[in-house]
Model the fold of this input.
Amino acid sequence: MAKGKHQTDRHHRKPRSIGGQDVANNISIVNKRQHESWHHLFSNMPAAAIVAIINETWIDSNYEIELKRRCTCN
Done:
């Protein structure tokens, strides 16, 4: 097996640098290499900026990814 293949990292879904908290619902356990790649591509950009880049650069121009805020109601 390749070294580090199954290593994991804690990823803040909303980066702390833009107001994300260090709480369970803001943390995902992700593959270390994928995590490094994510930050290489998107640094700590907010979700809307990431979606814009994906739409402009990475997907078929006949499609568009939309960002929708989840309800924070109880």
Q: What stands out?
A: The beta strands are 8-12, 27-31. The radius of gyration is 15 Å. The chain has a mean pLDDT of 91. Residues 8-58 form one domain.
